[in-house]
């Protein structure tokens, strides 16, 4: 398992397994967000199994499946809500961590400059520069109320 922090309170990772959850908790994360649709993965890694294992360790678990190339505003809003409701740092995963990075940047638009979000993601190999106009538009929309 590879933990890639994008902020002090949010990290992403490629696909994890139930046995990784204890280390995630030990690293200080309180909420786990699964951004991978169940149709992409074997049964033992699907959200129901992961939820059961996470909750058994006292972690909050949120399933917010993001379909590659078909990200929706509902995904963005669900990610924002899960991050806002988390009692502590959030750990999100998908196949590579890319979708979890994208949905984070869009959901947190206006919380930090778009360039900083893009730079933090790039430090871990996630290329989000093409999203800068969308991040800035969402930030402006939030600022207008």
Automatic annotation (TrEMBL):
Q: Where is the Beta-lactamase hydrolase-like protein phosphatase-like domain?
A: 3-110
- InterPro entries, from UniProt? BLH_phosphatase-like, Prot-tyrosine_phosphatase-like, Rhodanese-like_dom_sf
Q: Pfam families from the xrefs?
A: BLH_phosphatase
- Its recorded name reads TIGR01244 family phosphatase
**Which species is this UniProt entry from?**
Pseudogemmobacter faecipullorum
């Amino acid at each position: 398992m590879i933990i890639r922090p994008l902020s002090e309170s949010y990290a992403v990772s490629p696909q994890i397994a139930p046995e990784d959850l204890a280390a995630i908790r030990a690293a200080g994360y309180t909420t786990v967000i699964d951004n991978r649709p169940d149709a992409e993965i074997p049964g033992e890694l699907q959200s129901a199994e992961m939820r059961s294992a996470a909750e058994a360790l006292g972690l909050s678990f949120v399933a917010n499946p993001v379909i590659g190339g078909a990200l929706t505003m509902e995904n963005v809003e669900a990610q924002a809500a899960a991050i806002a409701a988390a009692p502590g740092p959030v750990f999100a995963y998908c196949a590579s961590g890319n979708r979890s990075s994208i949905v984070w940047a869009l959901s947190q638009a206006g919380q930090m400059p778009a360039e900083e979000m893009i730079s933090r993601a790039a430090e871990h190999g996630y290329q989000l520069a093409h999203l800068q106009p969308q991040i800035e538009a969402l930030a402006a929309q939030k600022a207008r109320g």
